[in-house]
Structures are given as structure tokens and as C-alpha cells.
Amino acid sequence: MLWICLHTDRPMPVVTLTPTETQIFSGQSVSLTCDILSGKPQDWKYSWFKKGYLAYNQVSSEQEYRISPANESHSGDYTCRGTRKSDSQNSRTSEAINLPIPELTVDPQGPVFTGETVTLKCGLATSGGWRYKWYKGSSQTEVSQSDHYHRAGDTLTITLPVATLTIEPQSLVFTGEMVTLKCVVESFSDWRYKWYKGRSHTEVPQSDRYSRAGSTLTIRGAADCNESLPNPKLSSDRAEQVFTGSSVTLSCEANLSAGWEFYWYRHTPNSDPVGQTAVNSYTISSIKVSDGGQYWCSAGRGNPVFYTHYSNAVWVKVTGSSPAASVVISPNRSQHFTYSTFSLSCDVQDNSSGWRLRWFTGREWLECPSSWSSEMGHTCTISYPYTSDSGVYWCQSDSRATSLAINVTVHDGDVILESPAQPVIEGNPLTLRCMHRSEPTSLSADFYKDGLRLQTQSTGHMTIPAVSKIHEGLYHCRSPDRGTSPKSWVSVRPRGNEEA
What we know:
It contains no helices and 44 strands. By secondary structure, it is mostly beta strands. β29 (356-360) and β30 (365-366) form a beta hairpin. One of its GO terms (biological process) is immune response.
């Protein structure tokens, strides 16, 4: 018997990769196809191997091995082998094809901060010879070599920029003032900002006090500041009376940093300012009689404006050709109790006519209020005054000549300070008295000037034998049992200006 043996080479499969890119990203779908150039695809069953081990848990009739979604664990060398269905004959094992899915690692792995360095590494479980490209976010533009990005093969080193914190205002901040903080990071965009206070790891929340807007944090009503709000000091370059047509310059000294503006008030400090300047001086040129009166200043900065305290008051007396007049109050004091009668009148030196009492409440200009009674044209009397009758009073002629103004405070509390409504002449005595609404006898009282206690008097009154400019200021008194009076300004005029 003659045996004839025919030897046929087993077919060699070829593996193709779809997509054909040399770089596959995590999350993509990948297909490996096993082509056996012998017979039809349906004649074979297919086995897939990764690094020599069966990659698929069973032999499949599908010549395509699909991975979706791909991740770093799928990276490696793949081969396939076919088994003919008709006779279980195996093909040869294909050449390996590499599935390159890079693995990105970061060092350090925790949170990083501005100014630190971060190292990214693109790892491939294959042999060398790869070229690496780096991308940020969803951008299709390759990260370029720069001061912040250093590329070296499979490694990208990022030097994070230093964040700069700015504050506005840059100088001392006062309690209650608004503060704006800004986090500036140059050369980079798309930052998200978180704000922290002190050593706390809790993020500053959005609230009525803290307003966050991207790189900016606004703090309203700063409360952790120990700096006391300054009391500006107002002065004039004209100690004597001035004549119409001349000029007067007022100076507001407050020892403030740059960035403040100055506000100027006439007749009452809580009215709308008559001027606003970027410097601490205010000049009234070609002055008129109507420009005369009491002036105050304050300083402010920010938006909305944060103001200092009001300054002391300075009198500006303007002398013109009109007849002189003065406003007289009876009883002669700046403060009065509610429901306690007082009157105001215009004392005209030459008995000229056309003088009327004027009144400014901080909102409007009025003549003798409608609730008051008028006597002899020049006098206004009120029997039951209210706190709303407080204000600035002066006399004005038909030709708009004005007297000096006086401030009147009507108080609904139990204690007032008896102080002169008109300026005290330098060298004259000054007596201040703490008065109680229902007790005419003297009260034991503390007396204060510009917020500082001067002395305690069991008699309820204090006397300065001879006043000078240093005694000018804001006075009030306090009775330990009865309460505290409002504050009144005491002005001192140089001797020789008794008519001022």
C-alpha cells in the first residue's frame, strides 16, 4: 500500500487596528480585526491573545475584537489565531500589534498651589521610539515649550505661576469700610478661585458680607480692624472777617493716605456737601455775603463712599455793604427740651427792614415754621417744639445779606447741655451746665470734649475762666443716673470780632 502525505503551510493571520492612529486615548472605541487569507471569514473561529494569554474568555466566530471604552489596562501587544470549523485545524499565530493607550500620571497627586511644580508623565507599556504631544483640556492645540511648560520626552513639567493678592484700599482699613481683594494670576486663564480666611480650610461663603465674583472678593463692613476712624481738623487761612469779593481757603487735616476725597459742608454737617475736592483744601473765590456761615469737612473713599467723622466747625464771616444783623435765641443755649418754649429773633443793628429768620432742616429751606407763632416780624416763638424743629437758623435780608447761623438741637431725652449758641469771645469765661428736664437743681455730671472726659462736677456745671482757641470743640455731658446729652459745638472767636 502506498501512503501519500501532502503538507500544506498553515495560514498566517494579519491583525489590523481601527482606528489607525498611532495614539489611542482613554474612552475611545477600538476594534482589532483578524484576517486569515484562506477560505472565508465565516469558515474560522477566532482566538485573541494579549501578551500570550487568552484575552477573550472564549473562542468567537467574530473576526473582530471590539474594546469599548478603552482604558490604560487595555494597552499592550495583541495577537490572534484561527481554528477552522471544518477540521479544527489551527492557523498560525499572527504577528503582534500594539494597542498604545498612554497612562497619564501626576506628581504630586494631591492638591497643588500657585508657585509649585507639577510633573506629568505619559506612560506606554511598549518599547521606546514614541514621540509625545501634550494637550490641555479639550484644546486641540499642542502645549508649546515655554517658561511654564517644559517638555522632555514622555514628561511634561508645569511650573504654576505665583498668584498675587491685591487689596483695595491699600492703606489702613477702618471698621465698617468696604475692602476689595483680587487674586491676579498672569500668563494663565480658565482659573477657578476659592477664598479662605486666615488658616481656615473652610471656603469663604457667598453672603451679604462676602461677595465673590471670579478673581475678586468684596468684604462689606470690615469688622476686624483696630484702626480708629480719624477726626479731621478744619482750619481757615482767614482768622478775621472777610469782605465780599475776596477769597477764603479752608484746609481739612486728617493724616490720611492717598485715595481719599474731601467733602465740604455749610450750615450743618449732615446736609449735602457744597463742594468735593481731591485735595484737602477748598477755596471760595469772589466770596459773597451768602457764603458766610459755619463750615465742616469730612473725607471719603470707595464706592459706595466710606466717610470719616465730621471735622470741627469753622466760621466764615463775610462783611458786605448790607446792614448787619444777628440771630438771637432765648433761652440762650444751643440745646432745648421737647415741649419747652423758646424763641428766635433777628437783632438788626440799624433797625432796617426786610430781615427774616431762615431755617434749614437738612432737607429744605424755610422761613418761620408754620407751627410757630410770629411776633413783630423778626421773632419766631414755639411753645411745644419737637425734635423735627432742630436745625440751623440765621437771619437774611431782602438783599440776601446773612447773619451768622446757630445750630439748635431739640432733644426728647432727660438731659441736655447748656452751652452758648453764639461764639464765645477769646478771653471770656465759658460755663457749661448739665440740665435735667424735671429737676431744676444741679446734677452731678461728667463733662466731655471731643469724646474725652474733662472733669466730673457734683454741682452739675463747669467753668473755663478764659477761653482760647484750644477750647473750641464738641461738648456733651452725662449724668450717671439720668442719661447723656446731645453734643454741641462751642466756637471761640478772636477778641475784636465781637460782632462776628
